[in-house]
Amino acid sequence: MVYPLSEIENLEDAEKYPWPDPDLYDYSALPGLIDQCGGRAICCGYWALFTFHNYLRGLENSLMDPVLEPEMTRYILGRLSDFFYEYHRRCFEAGEGRIDFTQVTDDWGSQTGLLTSPEIFREFYKKDMQRGIDLAKSFNIKVFHHDDGDMRMLLPELVEMGIDILNPVQWRCGDWDLKELKEQYGGKLCFHSAVDNQETLPLGNPEDVKKQVQQLIKTLGSDSTGFILGPCHNLQPNTTVENILSLYETARSFQY
Question: Residues 226-239: what's their mean pLDDT?
Answer without folding.
Answer: 95
